[in-house]
Amino acid sequence: xxxxxxxxxxxxxxxxxxxxxxxxxxxxxxxxxxxxxxxxxxxxxxxxxxxxxxxxxxxxxxxxxxxxxxxxxxxxxxxxxxxxxxxxxxxxxxxxxxxxxxxxxxxxxxxxxxxxxxxxxxxxxxxxxxxxxxxxxxxxxxxxxxxxxxxxxxxxxxxxxxxxxxxxxxxxxxxxxxxxxxxxxxxxxxxxxxxxxxxxxxxxxxxxxxxxxxxxxxxxxxxxxxxxxxxxxxxxxxxxxxxxxxxxxxxxxxxxxxxxxxxxxxxxxxxxxxxxxxxxxxxxxxxxxxxxxxxxxxxxxxxxxxxxxxxxxxxxxxxxx
Length: 321
Ligand code: PMV
Fold this sequence. Notes:
Bound molecules: (3R)-3-hydroxy-3-methyl-5-(phosphonooxy)pentanoic acid
Structural class: alpha+beta
Radius of gyration: 19 Å
Shape: globular
Number of helices: 8
Order of helices and strands: EEEEEHEHHEEEHHHHEEHEE
Number of strands: 13
Helix content: 25-40%
Strand content: 25-35%
């Protein structure tokens, strides 16, 4: 009873920020993302009567006790559905460093969901996998389907799942991750969601969301890079404005984050069309089209040459291997 799965991380263009139901991880708003080609997790899960407890190993790093507990909790969810009580051995590795500004919980829990459910012969469809992955990490629901993905808000668990809007080859959009800080973040993403509602700007953010999602989907449909980029960057700043004004305030940016943001604005003024986004952390994702990648990498070499850089294209979602 063994299976191996691989799943990409994803970058949210419209962010999931704030939950309407903590336990079921139901988001307050719909979010839209792109699966990342060069940031994925590969996980093998084996259930066996020979195992006397669950064991979890990460071959490229160390998992904290809390992280291991979160994995066992997710195995329990899947065991409950399969009506199976066998213990499991989990071996996992990421293609990218932890704390790089790439969500390892998204790729990690998507790969775990597919590998564990397949090892237990559950034969779940994409919607079911997305719902179960969501229970472990909201953004993991978006790492199950391919390419450009929408995760629907809903007040019921069965209706809040992610599905593919377009396959990876729909549009050659690039996500260049610039790791300006390698240190772990002081406040976890899970905790940041809880603080959101304390900001006086949170209500305004949510009131505007349905319109923003609609306009963004329209821009994506027309492959209008200018509008797409404007919305992506504005959305990231909007989410961070809420973080900055929550209680206590959350500031993930460092001097290098701000300095790169300003560079991006300057490059844009000089005619290179590129936009930034960032999640709950200091590292930036630069979104551009294929024709500008070379130019951006050369610009980065001048001022951010010492930073690790990961170049991603749109990718498929979770797969068994
Ligand atoms: O899925 P979580 O609980 O790790 O939350 C992800 C939140 C953001 O990364 C800030 C935004 C997003 O939609 O990915």
